[in-house]
Amino acid sequence: RVLECQGLPIVNGQCDPYATVTLAGPSRQVLHTKVKKKTNNPHFDEVFYFEVTRPSSYNKKSHFDIEDVDEVDKMEIRVDLWNASNLKFGDEFLGELRLPLKFLRQSSSYEAWYFLQPRDNGNKSLKPDDLGSLRLNVVYTEDHVFSSDYYSPLRDVLLKSADVEPVSASAAHILGEVCREKQEAAIPLVRLFLHYGRIVPFISAIANAEVKRTQDPNTIFRGNSLTSKCIDETMKLAGMHYLQVTLKPIIDEICQVHKPCEIDPVKLKDGENLENNRENLRQYVDRIFTVITKSGVSCPTVMCDIFFSLRESAAKRFQGDPDVRYTAVSSFIFLRFFAPAILSPNLFQLTPHHPDPQTSRTLTLISKTIQTLGSLSKSKSANFKESYMATFYDYFNEQKYADAVKNFLDLISSSGRRDHKSIEQPILLKEGFMIKRAQGRKRFGMKNFKKRWFRLTNHEFTYQKSKGDHPLCSIPIENILAVERLEEESFKMKNMFQVIQPERRVLYIQANNCVEAKDWIDILTKVSQCNKKRLTVYHPSAYLNGHWLCCKATADNTPGCTPCTGGLPANIQLDIDGDRETERIYSLFNLYMPKLEKMQEACGSKSVYDGPEEEEYSTFIIDDPKETYKTLKLIIEGVGTLEQEHAQYKRDKFKKTKYGSQEHPIGDKSFQTYIRQQSEISAHSI
Asked: What PROSITE patterns does the record point to (predicted)?
């Protein structure tokens, strides 16, 4: 009887498991369970019968013939788990377990949990010298995660990091100081802060502190600091979908079509034409550049809010440099997000495999050009060591490219803006003719619909009789409370949407087609996404003849009957387990405990002694020894408590549980090791 499985791996975003049960002996019989769709914890509860007989007593093909009872001991039951895949490569193997009948003969019924094992490749014995050798360094970490309440003290200290003054005295910053690699600290910190919605204030605080320490605007955010690692990690998590919608289609095309794009005369293959190759490459760069600079509306809100705070910090610190507000943002979005994703699409889940050498070369050339275009530095051609790159870059030395980059950077770093008027020049985001219904008229007839020229900037949404006229109506962005589709039944008109404002004022608009309607809804939603009073519910139909058509409510101020669609698909909910990330951070603090203690000593020596710093303490950033010492004390206490809980749990776990239970499936190596250790310690085995 195959009962159930837990925690099977999810392959390519899906898991449709089934099991095959085989009795393997002199001959074999394979039976299958049903496929369980869309679950990695399937409940099968299916029974399979195998009959093993001697040839004399039975003569049916489907039964197992054995000459001798001893042969039963050599037989085994094998259960393989598979993911039913619709790929052409066939189903994916998930794991197996093998049960020799020798064990089962000792007790007639045996129910237990088992760990799935990798496939056993039979006895294909190869001479060792037939194969090469492989050198590996494998790091294995195992986290045991308690329930939420265990982590409260440590978690609270971490989540307060954004509010600690100075930020260098916060628990999250201290983690960055003691870890050997900043990346180690950034991964769990970013996940934890994203999970609790604190990532923007935290990154704003550490970025602001880093900008204050930066002397030269040209080196802003260029080092591998905790700030840059945290922003990288946030972009990787929050921006995955954004990359898919912007770059994936064109990267797929580059990988499939294999157009020659080599522009280095030395590396040209026979029969290739340098001019043709340049033109191929220029078209690819142009297309990717356009896709990126037009994608501002899809950029996830969390990224926009971070870019906004980077831009503000940089502009405040280097007031004499008008470009620093752009370079602070482009050093992330171009240099650390788009350029690496083009260069190594496999690392950003844009392609399943590493591209072949020719494609890889094409992507390298595109990535270099996009990176330079995005960096907005003055003398572009001088940025390239290679003369052929400088020549190629002349195509892009036009002002329109720099303007497109600036407009894109303005849009993605203005979504979090609280004071919209602080930008000198409003940025035009979209304009065009649409049909609107008059607001606030009593009679409803076709004459109420008029064609108007609409303009949207990052300050306001306006309409006028025709392009260039004085606006007839202006809605400040902060007054847009929701932008939603409008049901066709309202006015018997297609492609309609509504812009909802304070005091229940609604502007009903008809776009020319469904694509236009979606574009307007997306961009209006984008610019108004951070408004404090955004609605959570709305009416999908209009208020006509004394009632709402959707919910039939009669009062025109009845709250909406349908939840707002709110964000764009780019703001994807991330599947993060906050407790697991806190456990990870605890493990890191525990691992680097000697450094935490050294940092405490450094705080002590700093607050008492004001002379030149001791060598071993100079590696830590300590702005306020008193505050830092306080936080260190809380961290060390929190870590100590958790360490005791873990030790107690380990002791209890092995004493109270049985091998083969769900906590200890058969094949659990840690349990076997524990038993071995215990039997060595005392003569009594468990």
From this structure: C2, PH_DOMAIN, RAS_GTPASE_ACTIV_1, RAS_GTPASE_ACTIV_2, ZF_BTK
